[in-house]
User: What shape does this take?
Amino acid sequence: MCSANQPEIVGATLETPTQDQLNSWFYFPTAVYTIQKPEFLEPVKEVAVRHLKNAKKERKLDEIYPVYMTGNLLDEPSMQGFSTYVSSTAWNILQGQGYDMTNFKTIFTELWCQEHYKHSAMEQHTHGFGVQIVGFYFIDVPDNSSRVVFHDPKAAKVQIGLPETNMNMVTAASNMINFEPKSGMLMFTNSWLAHSFTRHASTKPIRFIHFNLAVQFTPPQVSIVPVEVV
Assistant: This one.
């Protein structure tokens, strides 16, 4: 499974051919976006820890699925700066990908915290029901934590895939790619890209925010000119 610190294949590139060399074009790119935003750690962690305490009062840690999850954190006032940044960045991502976002705004459908303990993992899945952008914000990431894995969305390609020459390199043959999360790291990707987490190997839990955003149509403003009655 290749790691994201290797060179990535990007879309719509052309290599100038020499004699008997093929033109190489790459279309339909898959993008994963990351940025370090440590300024949100303090307010986000305060809210997450408080809600996790409530979750721990309601049930014991499951031995098979050792994870605690909070409810939606969208109504927390101290999360406003974080949620505004995430929402506007999601809008910019879609606009930058070529979608006409003129009459759309991004809205959260979910924003919650997960706390995974040793041997916990997250199965491969996507988010539907109108979600366009998904992402994570990592709060506490001890050594030997889970890695975030993104899976090739081209089902037909995966079905007929051949053995990879080197699974540690990012190539056109890669079926998945993993990222090593860091505290304060914010990640975005399109909702159609399946993601999962490897098993958590640390004795200390990993905490992160998981969020989903959809879009909402906003009709253009129509100016009403008063008509003079004569």
Remarks:
- The chain has three helices and eleven strands.
